[in-house]
Amino acid sequence: MHRTEFPRLLARPAALVAVAVVVTLTACSTTGDPDGVGSGGTDSGGAPGAGPVGSQPPGHPATQGPVVEVETVADGLTIPWDVVRDPEGVIVTGERGSGTLYAIRGSGERTVVDADLGELYDRGESGLMGMALARDFATSREVYTCHSSADADDNRVTSWTATEDWSALESPRVLVDGILLADRGLHSGCRILVHPDGTLYIGTGDAFTGPAPQDPESLSGKILHITRDGEPADDTIGDSPVLTYGHRNVQGLALRPDSDQIVAAEHGPDVDDEVNLVLAGSNYGWDPDAGGRYDQNVPMTDTRDFPDAVEAAWRSGDPTLAPGGIAFLDDPAWGEWDGALAVAMLKTSQIVLMTLSEDGTSVTATAAILRGERGRLRSITPEPGGSLLVTTSNGGGTDKVLRVRPAAG
User: What is the DSSP letter of 271?
Assistant: First the structure.
């Protein structure tokens, strides 16, 4: 079993420690539905492919993405943070603030899925967040969720057993607890990716806590890797579940088809959202610690203080776009974009398609779809046949689960 020791952390220079705390939340704010709405407000819309889509190699301008068809699967929701689809075609989503889970059948029938989450902490960006199904769900009925617990004052990942009719999630087992929960609910993460080998990858936020991303004892500002029983996987650092560290607020995780490459997306501060190739044992260079205070006036990937920090495959530059969920397109119907990474954007109300290099360390082309058409977009889940389930994040009972597919012909 391969284990990596957590490297000795480099000290930040004294002059930087003296910098006053900076609370410039461009990828997230402190009121309402904060993540992705900053001082610049929401995006003004425009044609697909127009406007900023982040760092882009010279000679590869942003293009209009493929024409798509959009179907409403469910409406009348409020911030459905994640969405899954079981082998029988039942779609399940949960509202971040209320913690209410819904099962949606092909007929359009929608029923509540009962789950005892205890007292949910629903301030800021916290509440009921990531959701995933076990790879053997058809036989195990195992479901994973990440939620913010007011009872335990933490973020936690729980395993459940879904009843055959999706009327309830039963037999909860806490797999990971003690993930920091900020007083205002900021930067909680919390995306779950189930690998084909049955292990779970979990993206966490830094809980707006300066020392957390570089602290080997903290589970926040990290990507975790655990077995389905909650034990550290074989490639984590030391005896902890920490796979990578130095993250700000991981919002998306995806496995590239026909490869072992895992890709993550995370919010930057006032600049530089990132898409990163996940490399076990690596530091991603976020360190907002100013003597225990939170200072965002630092690079998203600080290669000065952390020379070995992993450089982003893609960064938004200025302004930020606020990435949410991500998924790889995996169907010939997507044409030249088959195999591209699709990134839901909150602040800029679009899905950005990114063609990655073969080694996953850079982005060679980008395009945008649905820009300004459906409001803020949070989560993307692929379905059989190449379509995508996409959740909106506009609040106030106006949100939907959409099915997005390439237009026929």
Answer: S
